[in-house]
Amino acid sequence: LEFNFLTIINDKFFKNLTKLYELYLSYNLIKTINSNAFDSLINLRKLYLDQNQIGFFKDNIFSKLEILEIL
Fold this sequence. Notes:
Helix content is 0%, strand content 14%. It has strands spanning 8-9, 22-24, 32-33, 46-48. The protein has a two-stranded parallel sheet. Strands 2-4 form a two-stranded parallel sheet. The mean pLDDT is 93.
């Protein structure tokens, strides 16, 4: 999903994608990520968020990503 001018990641964006292993969100215009946006991504190991406009992450936003290796 790189280079897609995304600005927000809401709570339902990745719902039911439990088998997703890598997620590339780089080079978008993301400013906001809702606090439960990544909750269903229980098998995610790599998450790329570089080159966005994220000012801060909400508390526990990555708490369900227990096997995340790369952020």
